[in-house]
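= Paired protein data =
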Amino acid sequence: MLIGSIEAGGTKFVCAVGDEEYRIKDEIVLPTTMPEETLTKVIDYFKGYKLDSLSIASFGPIEIRKTAANYGCITTTPKAGWQNVNIVSILQTALDIPIFFTTDVNGAAYGEYIASKLSETPVSSLVYYTIGTGVGGGAILEGKIVGSLGHSEMGHVFVKRHPDDIEFQGICPYHNDCLEGLVSGPTFEARLSQKGASVSLENHVWDIMSYYVAQAAMQTTLILRPEKIVFGGGVTSEPFLKKVRKDLNAMLNGYVEMPNLDKYITMPMFANNKSATIGNFALGKKLIKSNK
């Protein structure tokens, strides 16, 4: 059994081929240019293998409802040229194999879920957030991806302003005060005129960011009660999550019983966003079985 994986991002497409044991056999990274150029290269790559299925974890927003006329489309993305591109239809026509389609964060969440099942500390529910150029989240409950009307948009929930951050306008063109508008990577440049990677963890801005991320973790905890929350993406680090755990503990104030926060809020089990690739392999395998 060979399964194809696409982690479709705004800057790059990570394409991989793996087996039913979620082992990566081959991988290629392609720059995200215009749709025709990028997808032609993707198709050429996968035509070199006899795939049984393909799973796509894509940047969004995307249309995942199979009953929708534009199922398979990347919809209102700000990525120039990619609005309303039906990535599923294009790849389906070219490769003629079953395709599973979901968001990048759902794919990563499913990969973390599968990895936990193979570990000494399996969980049946978790939430995965990525904090990078944007902010997104995906939830797995009892092994199923959450979302029926559409996919989750956890990066656009509103959070209470930090007292020292009242004047900052936020960078989300839709909501300003949403999580993405206040903690995504570009907010460092908007606040400090410098890249986040160069900002010392001693800078007070990290306390402000932690305050917001801890609120997101609190909302997730109280609404979904998952066994684990994973934070990935370029903004996230273990020292930052230490701040988040402390803030979350203070916000909950003993209201609900919580597990060890060092194990509850974690970094991804895989480096370099390999969680989405593993998730794609698992979802592609599941698709094959459901079609038999």
User: Anything to note?
Assistant: The CA atoms of residues 99 and 158 lie 34 Å apart. The mean pLDDT is 94. The first helix runs from residue 35 to 46.
